Every structure is written in C-alpha cells, then in structure tokens.
Please model this.
Amino acid sequence: LSSIVSKAYIFLLFKIYYRCIGIEVFESLPIRKILFILGILGMIFGSVSAIRKKSINRMVAYSSAAQIGYIYMGIGIGGGSPMDAAKAICLMTANPLEDETVFYTPKALPHLPVVCIPTTCGTGSEVTPFAVITDEKSGVKYPLADYELLPDMAIVDADMMMDAPRGLTAASGIDAVTHALEAYASMLATDYTDGLALRSLKLVFENLPKCYENGANEPRARENMANAATMAGMAFTQAGLGLCHAMSHALGGLFHIPHGRLNGVLLPAVIGCNASAAMHKYAQLARSAGLGG
Model:
C-alpha cells in the first residue's frame, strides 16, 4: 500500500489486450480490491507514471494514446495530481488541444468515463469538476473548469490512506481546511455548502492530529479525514474558493512548493484580509472547530 501512496499513478483500462503506455502492471491487494469493487476482476490494465507535474504536453501525449483505441475508461489513483491528470486526459480524448501552447476552454464533448480513487485526505478532486495542469515552459498552472470533468465515480476508501507519511498527511489536511474555510466564506456560499464546510472543518480539527501522530493505527480517524476532504470538495465545487487558492496556484507553479503546505503559509494572511467582511463567518467556523469565538 505504501508503494502506491508514495507515488502518483494514472491507471487506464484496456478493452482487449494489454498495450503498455506506462511502466508497470500492479498485482497488489489494494488494486485487486478496487477491481473487485468495479466488477472487473481479472482485467489487465496498465499504468502511466510521472504524472506529478500534470504538464500540458504529457496530457496531450496520453490522451492521444487513449484515442488510438482499446482504452475505454480512466482511473486516477493518488492525490490531486493523478486524479486531475486522469480527468484532463479523458476530457482531451474528445476535446483535443488545437494548440498545445495555448490554454483553452474545453468544448465539453462526450469523452472517456473517469473513476477517481484518492489516496490522500485533502484534494477533494474525486468529486469536483476542476483540474489544474501546468505549462512546463512558463511554469504557469492553468485551471480547467467544466462539469464534464466531474468524475463518473468516486471511491473513497480509508484503506488507501492508512500509510500516508506525516508530511503528506499534514499538507493534504491543511488543503482540506482551506477548502472548507474558503467555501464557507465565499460570496456564493449557500445553506447546503455551509453544512458541508462546517462539518468538514470539525472533522479535520478532531482527526488530523491523530492521523499525523499515529495514522497507521487510527483507521477511524483516517476515515473521518477522508470524509472531511470529500465533503470540503463538494462544498467548494458549488461555492468556489478564494484568494488563498488563487495565490497558491500561482506561487506553486513558480516555486514548486506542495499545494497544501503553501495554503497553510498563505491562509492566515488571507483570513486577516477577509476578516472585516466575513468576521461572523470565521467566528462560526472557529466555534465549529472547537476553538471558541
């Protein structure tokens, strides 16, 4: 399990026979479990590795390979990078870039279905219609936003997250905190998104320290964190995000700092900036998290 958690993969299923675009085929128990859940026991599949940067040229190359044939489904297993990449690749099979150097808005034509399986508790990409890809030449991160990017299925299984190292646990957990905070303070927030954001933040504050200190032996805390991350993703899908994410995407592309860690650096300043207009919202969040206020 740790070998999967520590790497970023995209899995592409093949209809007829194995054609390897990527590096290796996994026979591990977690993958067999996923195949069982999907009802495709025994089907051979390949992996595409080196997805961490989610670069435009890689997305184009993999989507072009998918268009050749035999591939009928994409599965993104990992953190935000492999899930975003799976979503972008499958979208590009029907919506190819006309110019690989120019960011464009997808035409949102029908495309390969996508299943997302998170191995971190933070990104929420398994339930969002967004993907972030990078122009390697300029270092600019481009957000794709279209409901065609919404995965067809999300499998949120805490067993896939048990062995996540402390650094990853902390960074992804802070990402979930940021999603909940920004969704709750958003001008587009509703009663529905507020409920998800408040519950998500409460779960993070109650369970993230346990996961950080002794995650491999805290299955309930890992499950609660998995739920919190997915709920926060559902909240910001409808309410949107804010200044913290706007800055972290820009700075992350330039300095290659992990997204969740950068959010943690920027969030206090953003809360201070928004405090005069959203003080009552932040006070409610603090009470929900057990901080008073």
